[in-house]
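Example for tutorial group B:
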């Protein structure tokens, strides 16, 4: 069967979006609740790591990008609570490893606990979950059993969220990690593409058996980012392979005094930061202190894995169109 081009789907979705936007009260959801990792983080890890990670600038206001991320864009339109934290994994690997980095890395289960510490799920919430990339790219749990464990952790936590009152859950699958600049550079494109495909296919199969599609849906980020790469001119991209920035990922803010700069992160925080640095790239344009944020005009990727602000902006438009399409009566 011939595949419907993504651009046509986008056009149809945007048509629905325009119609629904004329009266936003038509939506059956009233608030977005976000769980995830650095793709959705609005500064949570930056604060946790005393502004050392991600280093801002060059990263923008503690985001893992050079500008607003998709959660920033949607927060302009929807009430939003965001528990996403950079470096977070779907699975709590402290159960399997004593590595110091797992003392710092957040987990999906704990992000939900943090949310419950100050709020509760409502039947008009849309819960958005986008997590799993760190399990593979940063922490290297890439065997089939590891991938299945990540998906089953999604199932466990979604069932928990449903029991606590949520009625609408949207899970975002993984973009093709084999097409990221770091995967190309490190020669693991084939491996990471295989991991992505297994993750997304297994998730779809398991979800179809475990959940009513009226309550749990999957947003296809793979198709979105593939279209960014395959049809860059449709979205304003010119650079689809190389990263915009390949310098330092963490360090001490340039504005700190000499006495403050002498302070060091805790040992487990340093291990954690080095782990995330190695999942991006080795610095090739080292500068100790940055005073500006790169513009990254026309780039899909800000660094070895994280999207630029333009990619976030375009992805947010498509996700918003999806929300308008599926959560309007």
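The residue assignment follows.
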């Amino acid at each position: 069967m011939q595949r419907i081009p993504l651009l046509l789907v986008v056009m149809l979705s945007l048509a629905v979006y325009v119609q629904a936007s004329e009266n936003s009260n038509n939506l059956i959801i009233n608030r977005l609740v976000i769980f995830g990792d650095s793709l959705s983080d609005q500064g949570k890890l930056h604060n946790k790591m005393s502004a050392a990670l991600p280093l801002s600038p060059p990263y923008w206001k503690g985001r893992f990008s050079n500008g607003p991320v998709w959660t920033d864009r949607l927060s302009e339109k929807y009430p939003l609570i965001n528990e996403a934290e950079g470096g977070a994994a779907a699975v709590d690997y402290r159960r399997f490893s004593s590595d110091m980095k797992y003392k710092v890395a957040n987990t999906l289960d704990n992000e939900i606990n943090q949310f419950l510490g100050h709020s509760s799920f409502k039947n008009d919430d849309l819960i958005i979950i986008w997590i799993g990339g760190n399990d593979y790219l940063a922490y290297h749990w890439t065997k089939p059993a590891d991938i299945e464990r990540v998906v089953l952790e999604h199932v466990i936590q979604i069932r928990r969220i449903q029991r606590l009152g949520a009625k609408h859950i949207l899970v975002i699958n993984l973009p093709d990690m084999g097409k990221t600049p770091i995967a190309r550079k490190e020669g693991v494109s084939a491996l990471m593409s295989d991991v992505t495909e297994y993750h997304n296919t297994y998730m779809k199969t398991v979800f179809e058996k475990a959940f009513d599609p009226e309550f749990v849906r999957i947003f296809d980020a793979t198709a979105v980012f593939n279209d960014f790469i395959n049809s860059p001119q449709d979205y304003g991209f010119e650079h689809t392979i190389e990263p915009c920035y390949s310098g330092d990922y963490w360090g001490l803010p340039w504005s700190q005094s000499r006495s403050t700069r002498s302070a060091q992160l805790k040992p487990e925080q340093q291990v954690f930061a080095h782990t995330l640095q190695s999942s991006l790239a080795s610095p090739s344009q080292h500068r100790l202190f940055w005073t500006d944020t790169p513009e990254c005009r026309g780039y899909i990727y800000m660094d070895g894995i994280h999207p630029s602000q333009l990619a976030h902006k375009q992805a947010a438009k498509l996700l918003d169109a999806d929300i308008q399409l599926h959560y309007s009566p």
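The first helix runs from residue 6 to 21. Compare this with the pattern of hydrophobic and polar residues in the output above.
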